[in-house]
Amino acid sequence: MGVLFQKPVRAFFLGGLIGLSIVGSSVLCQTASDSKSSGILEGHLKILSLKPVELADEAPATAGPAVTYSEYPLIIRSRPGEREIARITADANGNYHLALPPGDYMLDVLGRAPKRVRARPQPFTIVAHQVVRVDLEIDPGIR
């Protein structure tokens, strides 16, 4: 009796594996083609006035606070719906780089209003296989 069921079970098992590998490879191909059709957002985050104001008749003040880009994460939102798409943090030099699918977006500072950070959100459009540069300046209000 074990011999009678062995061939159908083996055929079913092999057929299932073949089916899974076909589905898996089509999913991988779809993911690879999606990443190939994306565009790139790159830019520079500039943090303004992180040191105290120096008067002309005063000796130079000690160095102001170090620039810490991690304190100002950036958020990418869809423009039509303002839905959050991604969050990024600038590197130690203030640069950022991110692959995104084609579409219209808005670059902003996360928590801008509650932190009272002054920044103008920047609209941008991603086109497949192209790089768009969007620089952002923020004033954290630190004096």
User: How would you spell out the order of helices and strands?
Assistant: HEEEEEHEEEE
Low-confidence stretches: 17-33
Outline type: globular
Mean pLDDT: 74
How many whole angstroms does the radius of gyration measure? 26 Å
Sheet with the most strands, sense and barrel status = 5 strands, mixed
Helices, by number, come to: 2
Secondary-structure content class = alpha+beta
Spatial gap, N to C terminus: 86 Å
Question: How would the blueprint of this fold be written?
Answer:
Elements: H1 2-36, E1 39-47, E2 74-78, E3 84-88, E4 95-100, E5 103-109, H2 112-115, E6 118-119, E7 122-126, E8 131-133, E9 136-139
Parallel strand pairs: 1-8, 1-9
Antiparallel strand pairs: 1-4, 2-3, 2-5, 5-7, 6-9
Tell me about this structure.
The protein is an alpha+beta fold and 143 residues long. Helices cover 27% and strands 32% of the residues. The chain is built from 2 helices and 9 strands, in the order H-E-E-E-E-E-H-E-E-E-E. The protein has helices at residues 2-36, 112-115; strands at residues 39-47, 74-78, 84-88, 95-100, 103-109, 118-119, 122-126, 131-133, 136-139. The strands form 2 sheets. Strands 1, 4, 6, 8 and 9 form a 5-stranded mixed beta sheet that branches. It has a 4-stranded antiparallel beta sheet with strand order 3-2-5-7, with no helix packed on it. The chain starts with a helix and ends with a strand. Residues 17-33 have low confidence and may be disordered.
